[in-house]
Amino acid sequence: MSLEQDVAAARRAVDALEEACAPLTGHFGDTVDARRLRVDVARLRDDLALLCGARVATPREPFAVVYGDGDDEGLGGSGRTRR
Where on the tree of life does the source sit, at the highest rank (predicted)? Predict the structure, then answer.
């Protein structure tokens, strides 16, 4: 196989893994392990893009609803001060 074919096959495999994990994580809700699985799948997609030198395409985000407001608010969160 050529490099392009191998990369396409790997991307299809990551897509298939993401599709397989989506319903599975739904059974466990927003747990640490379910979030880690989602992040690991996203990391696979990013690592593949970095390895191949391609620009990172905007991934399909089936889990975007779960992330909600994931901004880091810093020490103590919004409206809180350090003592």
Answer: Bacteria
